[in-house]
Design brief:
CATH architecture of the largest domain: 3-Layer(aba) Sandwich
Shape: elongated
Helix content: 40-55%
Number of helices: 17
Number of domains: 3
CATH class of the largest domain: Alpha Beta
CATH superfamily of the largest domain: HUPs
Number of strands: 14
Distance between the termini: 41 Å
Largest sheet: 4 strands, parallel
Bound molecules: zinc ion
Structural class: alpha/beta
Length: about 475
């Protein structure tokens, strides 16, 4: 497997530090609002990565944190006159709901900041003891970026020489412009945690380093194998995480760094159905989770993603083809089978998650399978092979996991659904009573509604003709 290391800025062969075990950490959401498309993109990319790693036989421990203490959360709680816990519980549930709708598996660990305060305090004490951190007069504790000779090597940011030279000779302030808060002292009644260096709240950057030490780190040159997140986190967040870890412990933070591109949106063109919203919950009102998943994963994870409805609909048409093939295989039992397609698909994804190649292989497989079934609709070998291929696509990419009939019923309103289902029930009754004149008449009524029927041993399935 080869992945692009965004710090080395090149593709590197992936070799875990500890045999078959892989540790993966991804920066998760701050839970003060609904999840937007940027959250979805990051969660999807690393969901895909963990699936591909597992398909290669690795034992993956994947952790994605939840920032449940933050000024924005406190602000929202005040604004709504509710507790912080009410805000975080609401948005953690919403986040889980939206991610599940996109077919994103839960990581193995979802550490929360408020449950990791002790680990953060330990790290601050280490940094204070090593002279990598200092307290200012009001009790805030800062990381001293000038004490880390490797600071800025991760992001490759140009060193701001002026900021470094301009030492502010006052205990009221931090010493250098690039220094960042590890701990913010709290002197009033607002929410805070007790620590040997004073009551306060942790700085955001600290959380990830402390959680990694607590939950994932093992002996070795690096605390973990892969650290992931959105490209916007490389600086300063990941730079600061890396600095804290190397200065507080005897290892570097991660052996490989992976960053996904930005998500932008074409506001005006989106306005018809989605408004200018980036929220997944709004997109889910219009589109199936799986369609969004397919669309958001259809461009390479490192490329910036411009969300627009035209591309989304084109993307859906591509997914429809997979489901049309799945429909032709309906009722067939899946059997374990090794096909050349499966190997090719994994090879494509092993090349830094080359989704374009993977999707091209899927398109090709669909065409070939349909051709075989066009020649002989009862070709059992072709059917079983196609089904095995679809199962592999579902495992690796999370596409094609639904019942094909349900997939094509999406967006049909409740009234139409009830009408169709009532007519089908009547038709089944007529068939059972061997009243074929009535059952045929009901069939014609249903067809006239633009619905097609498929009778199978599992029952009658229907979908709307497009
Ligand atoms: Zn982080």
């Amino acid at each position: 497997m080869v992945i692009y290391d965004s710090v080395a800025k090149e593709k590197r062969r992936f070799v875990p530090q500890h045999g078959n075990d892989v540790t993966l950490y991804v920066c998760g959401p701050t839970v003060y609002d609904d999840a937007h498309l940027g959250h979805a993109k990051s969660a999807l990319v690393f969901d895909l990565l963990s699936r591909v790693l597992r398909a290669n036989g690795y034992h993956v421990t994947y952790a994605r944190n939840i920032t449940d203490i933050d000024d924005k959360i406190i602000h929202k709680a005040k604004e709504r006159h509710v507790s912080i816990g009410e805000i975080t519980t609401t948005y953690i549930e919403a986040y889980h709901h939206d991610m599940a709708a996109l077919g994103i598996a839960r990581p193995n660990l979802e550490p929360r900041a408020t449950e990791s305060i002790e680990a953060m305090i330990i790290m601050i004490e280490q940094l204070l003891a090593n002279n990598h951190a200092y307290a200012i007069e009001n009790g805030d504790i800062y990381f001293d970026t000038s004490s880390d000779h490797r600071y800025l090597t991760l992001s490759g940011q140009l060193q701001d020489a002026d900021a470094r030279r301009q030492r502010v000779e006052s205990s009221h302030l931090k010493r250098h412009q690039s220094d960042f808060a590890l701990w913010k002292a709290v002197h009033d009644e607002s929410i805070a945690f007790e620590a040997p260096f004073g009551r306060g709240r942790p700085g955001w950057h600290l959380e990830c380093s402390a959680m990694i030490e607590k939950h994932l780190a093992r002996d070795g040159a690096y605390a973990i194998d892969i650290h992931g997140g959105g490209a916007d986190l490389l600086f300063p967040h990941h730079e600061n995480e890396a600095a804290q870890t190397r200065c507080a412990t005897n290892h570097e933070l991660a052996a490989y760094w992976m960053h996904n591109g930005f998500v932008t949106i074409e506001g005006e063109k989106m306005s018809k159905s989605l408004g200018n919203s980036f929220f997944i919950k709004d997109a889910l009102k219009v589109y199936q989770g799986e369609v969004l998943r397919f669309y958001l994963l259809s461009t390479h994870y490192r490329a910036n993603f411009n969300f627009n409805e035209t591309d989304l609909l084109a993307s859906k048409k591509r997914l429809d083809k997979l489901y049309r093939l799945k429909k032709r295989l309906f009722g067939l039992k899946a059997i374990a089978m090794v096909t050349p397609f499966q190997t090719q698909l994994l090879d494509a994804l092993n090349d830094d998650l080359n989704v374009s190649k993977a999707l091209a292989l899927i398109d090709e497989m669909i065409v070939l399978s349909n051709e075989k079934l066009d020649i002989n609709a009862k070709d059992k070998v072709a059917k079983k092979e196609a089904l095995a291929n679809i199962e592999t696509i579902a495992t690796l990419l999370g596409f094609g996991t639904n019942n094909p009939f349900n997939y094509f019923q999406h967006g049909i309103d409740t009234a139409t659904r009830q009408t169709v289902e009532a007519l089908i029930a009547q038709r089944n009754d007529a068939k059972r009573a061997k009243d074929f004149a009535t059952s045929d008449a009901l069939r014609d009524t249903i067809l006239a509604l633009g619905i097609s029927l498929m009778d199978t041993p599992e029952g009658t399935f229907w979908e709307r003709n497009d």
